Amino acid sequence: MKRRHFLTGAAGAALLSTLPVSSIRAFAQSASGVITYGQSTAVLTLDPAHGAFTGYPGGYEAALLIFDRLLDFDADMTIVPQLAEAFTMSDDLQSCEIKLRSGVTFHDGTPCDAAAIKFNIERMMNKEINTTNRPLWNPISGAEVVDDTTVVIRTSAPFAQLPNTLAHGSGAIVSPAAIEKFGEDGFAQNPVGAGPYMVEAFNAGQELTLKAFDGYWGEKPGASGVVFKFIAEPATRINAITTGAVDVIDSVPVQLVSQLEGNADVDVVRKPGLRPIGLAMNLTRPALADIKVRKALNLAVPVATIAEKVFFGFAKAPDSPLAFDAIGHKSVGETVFDQEKAKALLAEAGYTAGSDGVLAKDGAKLTLSLFAPEGLFPGDVSVAEIVAASLKQVGIDAQITKIEKGAYWDHLRQDKANLAWDLAMFGFNPSNASGTYHLASLFKSNADDEGKPDVWNIGRYRNAEVDELLNVADSAPEESARMEALGKAQELVWADAPYLWLQINENVSAVRKPVTGVTVMPIVFTNLRNAAKA
């Protein structure tokens, strides 16, 4: 069978595996000191299955240190080997052969070999155990042990994104012995991986303490330990890093960045994100089923001004349903602020202004319920208020309902009969770096629009041509064909305007000197895996 080696830049994965580990990783020469990370989200569970590392993104950030995966993403989201020395995809995109590093052990001393990998793959395939991230795992049909250091992962159909799945956070490899010891219900509080740090103490929702794993196969970790401490309030996190109570914080409010940049003891770390923010439109509502109304909504809001003024330039207006740095992104349009054109489109759609200035059609006012979380997305409430005020200027009455961030997701993922919103703020983070995964999760037709959405197509968007293009983007043998299909899908989705497109934010964290090696990933995560403290 002909095979192809997936490359990392100009070099193949097999070539990378021959380099010294120090050339792939940036760990310090020796561990010293404990790094304390003041997180904006609490770590609740630490299992890639059963809900996948809640809360988000805090649980994933801790998992990056506790667990290794077969493959990893570097700082630019290029796929590189981790537990794998090399990986080879078949030409038909239906299998991947993994060559494992030899001699790797879990924190409990048991071997991380091909049998353990097979156990993990089959566990994540199980829909009753792994209920989340299903688009990543559904295509996988099995895993076959060839020898102790070789495993073949097979898919039921061509699946070009298999390496992205294996590098995704949910691809974390857990100890089968620990699953047996603690059970499926207990592992999330007693996690055992093969990463550079192991759990010392875990107070779910409050604090997680890790210590360096002396038996780690790679370079020695750059700290003797890492403490993840939940600090919900941004002002409290800022104070904590300013006073030295913590070494790292995430989710720095952009309006306070200049304050930190003036502090000689603190470095600000920023990275353009992969999560476009927008307002999903409930297309089951008659008004929003009209494309003229949807396009008018997009024309009515000053998106570029929001990016510049609300986020002080730490955001950009989108030009596609995908973020600029997403794999497969194509520039397919621009956000335009033109309220006169918006009014004209609404008039073409049959709406006329009443005495109160609110547009109406056939006796029904154009009143929309706008759901927004409090503190889940950058500037969520402020942006919602600007949107509502802008829509009012063109005759649309947008009523804001603010939802506590922990309960917000449940309000979005309702069956059709229980959808209480017309517009809902949402941002999808494609944490496997794939534009195809992103578009399919949000815009591939649901199997049944009456029920809950299959993934995150919460607005019930449906376009058969987009569905077919996404299938091609997922399975075509040649990358050029996959990218062409993905680009065309972006064009169609943008033209259909199922979202009121808003902004793409940068991810901003802060690090106190002398801590080094902290990176902010495009997929929201602040990554301390390579961090060191003198």
Secondary structure blueprint with pairings:
Elements: E1 3-5, E2 7-8, E3 11-12, H1 13-18, H2 21-24, E4 34-39, H3 58-66, E5 71-73, E6 79-81, E7 84-90, E8 95-100, H4 114-125, H5 134-137, E9 140-147, E10 150-155, H6 162-167, H7 176-186, E11 197-203, E12 207-212, E13 225-230, H8 234-243, E14 248-249, H9 257-261, E15 266-281, H10 291-300, H11 303-310, E16 315-316, H12 339-348, E17 352-353, E18 359-361, E19 364-365, E20 367-374, H13 380-393, E21 397-404, H14 408-412, E22 423-427, H15 435-443, H16 464-475, H17 479-496, E23 499-512, E24 519-520, E25 526-527
Parallel strand pairs: 4-13, 4-14, 20-21, 20-22
Antiparallel strand pairs: 1-7, 2-3, 5-6, 7-8, 8-10, 9-10, 11-12, 12-13, 14-23, 15-22, 15-23, 16-23, 17-18, 18-19, 24-25
Helix pairs in contact: 10-12, 15-16, 15-17, 16-17
Short summary of the structure?
The protein contains 17 helices and 25 strands.
Describe this structure in words.
The protein has 534 residues and is of the alpha+beta class. The chain is 29% helix and 25% strand. The chain contains 17 helices and 25 strands. The strands form 6 sheets. Strands 4, 11, 12, 13, 14, 15, 16, 20, 21, 22 and 23 form an 11-stranded mixed β-sheet that branches. A 5-stranded antiparallel β-sheet has the order 1-7-8-10-9. A 3-stranded antiparallel β-sheet has the order 17-18-19, with no helix packed on it. Strand 7 (84-90) and strand 8 form a beta hairpin. Helix 16 packs antiparallel against helix 17 (479-496). The longest helix is centred in the C-terminal third of the chain and has 18 residues, at 479-496. The N and C termini lie far apart (51 Å). Residues 1-31 have low confidence and may be disordered.
